[in-house]
Amino acid sequence: MEVNVDSCLEPVAKNIQTKCEEKVNEPEIVEYQSELIAGEIQLKSEEKVNEIEPVKKEYQSDSLAEKTQIQSKEKDSEVRPEKKVEQTESVAKEDPFAYLDRDDFTSEKYKIEIRNLPKHYGIAEFKKLINIKLELNCSKVKTPNRNGKWLYMCFRSEEDKNTALGILNGYNWKNTKLDASNAKAVPDPLVKKRNEQFDECPDVKKVKLDNAGAEQQMISAVTPLYNISYPEQLIQKTNSIKNVLMDYSRRLKRIKGGQNILDWLKKQQDVNNGLPCELLEIRSLKDNPEKCIGYRNKCEFTIGMDVENKEPVVGFRVGAYNQGKTSVAPIDNISNVPQRMKDVVKCFQDLVRASKFPVFDPENYTGHWRQLTVRLSLKTEQLMLICVVHTENMEDSALNSLKQLILNYFTEGAGANCKVDSLYFQKAKKRAAGEGNSFPLELLHGQGYIVEEVKGLKLRISPESFFQINTAASEILFDAAKDLASINSQTTVLDVCCGSGTIGLSIAKDCAQVIGVEIQEEAVNMAKLNATENCITNAIFFAGKAEEVMNRREFQNPENANDVVAIVDPPRAGLHNKAILLLRRMTHLKRLVYMSCNPKGAMQNFLSLSMAESKTKQGAPFVPVKAVPVDMFPQTPHCELIVYFERL
């Protein structure tokens, strides 16, 4: 049966509109923001190294939301004055530095400012100076901007701070005398935002945002294109990619790239309507519209309080902390979350509400329930849950009691109906100096992974594995990359940033050999296991930094050196510049396919590949020949871009 994606989304829009219209006698102000925490709503196709990392994205407000706001304003004029008083609250200025008086640790308490830095220095050099040579107990280095004229250093005690001040003030580094002094703490961004709103209208009472308005606000940020037809979404995304390619051309012209580069660029623009390369038609799931909704196989849900009743909710944040918002809205009407995931979240929410443990409060750093990560295979239907709990000041007996509560709920209680295949528990608290970005995962129940099926392969997905957020669209993505690379039985594929080997293994049967590199050792072990379980013998994987591992003989002198292509699929920030320079120096490498979930963020990599040969950039430049957008994220403005490069 053919399903139209627009008709699938229409009930969602009507449902939200109806909920807003039911508040006839309640005025509301729907505040729209352009940025939300990316870690809760989008692609840690996002940070592949850890995937627990927040990232900001820009969104646009939609026409339905604007219509709702207009309707709300019209209804406000009909509300009796005394009714309005009942729905407002007094607003008073708060102390944005009150957090410094709390018992919990913050690096802002012990911070110094370093000025008069050398004209040319690297942040890695500075960290080596203070941590290795001077042996200062610095917990964090903050830089306002790259190679700025000053930076901040944070410590864990007054003693460590004073020791650093005594050593660094007047210290001679690179023929420059450093200036070190005490630094002022920054205000709490949540309180600061509230005070700014107070300053704008000090004599006006603040009108409360109700749950329906908060939910609409969240939906408009998570899926800003949900009420736009899918063909129109694809047009918008194609135009966005065109703008990226045009920007590449403009920036390449400004770089001293040599006459050969400029001549090539002019010729390309003449035959490609002003673009630097041929832009192929966007690839998508438009022929399977039912797969354009409920497609996410992973979501990180925040546990917080709703706006209106201050009741625990498991969902997405209404706004960012630095926008003065900490409330959470339910996900019932989010179009890209599958129904089974919504049912699991609702079931977990029942557990949170029934328990004696409070929800985590990001403003005061109290409470316990913090986050629920859900991974779901839409093909095998296997389910993984990761319960993240704030354990600061939590006694061992209470911690063990909470673990047992979660375990019993999903194995014997109401949660057993969720049929969880893999249940994890993870602590979350403020990190001490030297601790990593995340805390160890503890398996409470089931196997340590779920199985996903892609291109006929069965792949193990662990809690921290990177995997494309849209399984069905990932097959389109891999096919597009293989087609651009012109892979055949004699081709050696260098799979750079290979993750758990998904891309390389999916094309292994069509090439001579796959050689992968990934910084995460756990992901490499999973890649090797996936190769073994799928009887693939022509793929090898190495753990480590790409810029270091690619110096190995396997990369520099592969068996099939006459036909080598690199497929690069880096994290959102792009590939390290040292790795780009190393790829350029590989004389046997003639073709390169670059896959980016953040095309604007990959721009510097594109330019570094294409700059004219020099002392620092050895090897003939790579220039774009073809590009193809792939829509991995329907209902959102995000779009994957694959660019095929060849040597000039």
Structure description:
The chain has 648 residues and is an alpha+beta fold. 33% of the residues lie in helices and 21% in strands. It contains 19 helices and 27 strands. The strands form seven sheets. An eight-stranded mixed beta sheet has the order 11-26-27-25-24-21-22-23, sandwiched between helices. It has a seven-stranded mixed beta sheet with strand order 14-13-12-15-16-17-18. The longest helix is centred in the middle third of the chain and has 25 residues, at 230-254. It is globular. Mean pLDDT is 81; it is low at 1-90.
Key traits:
disordered N terminus, 648 residues, seven-stranded mixed beta sheet, single chain, globular, alpha+beta
Summarize the structure.
By secondary structure, the chain is an alpha+beta fold.
Number of distinct helices: 19
Kindly report how far apart the N and C termini lie.
Answer: 49 Å
Low-pLDDT runs of 5+ residues are 1-90
Radius of gyration: 27 Å
Structural class: alpha+beta
Strand fraction band? 15-25%
Mean pLDDT equals 81
The spatial strand order of the largest sheet comes to 11-26-27-25-24-21-22-23
The number of distinct β-strands equals 27
Largest sheet: 8 strands, mixed
Task: Please bin the fraction of helical residues.
Answer: 25-40%
| Morphology | globular
Helix and strand arrangement:
Elements: H1 5-21, E1 35-37, H2 38-41, E2 56-58, H3 63-76, H4 81-86, E3 88-89, E4 111-115, H5 123-133, E5 138-142, E6 150-155, H6 158-168, E7 172-173, E8 176-177, E9 179-182, H7 189-200, E10 206-207, H8 211-222, H9 230-254, H10 259-271, E11 278-279, E12 298-305, E13 312-317, E14 328-329, H11 339-354, E15 369-376, E16 383-390, H12 396-411, E17 422-428, E18 441-446, E19 450-454, E20 457-461, H13 471-485, E21 492-496, H14 502-507, E22 513-518, H15 521-533, E23 539-543, H16 546-549, H17 553-556, E24 564-568, H18 577-585, E25 589-596, H19 603-610, E26 622-630, E27 640-647
Parallel strand pairs: 11-26, 16-17, 21-22, 21-24, 22-23, 24-25
Antiparallel strand pairs: 1-2, 3-10, 4-6, 4-9, 5-6, 7-8, 12-13, 12-15, 13-14, 15-16, 17-18, 19-20, 25-27, 26-27
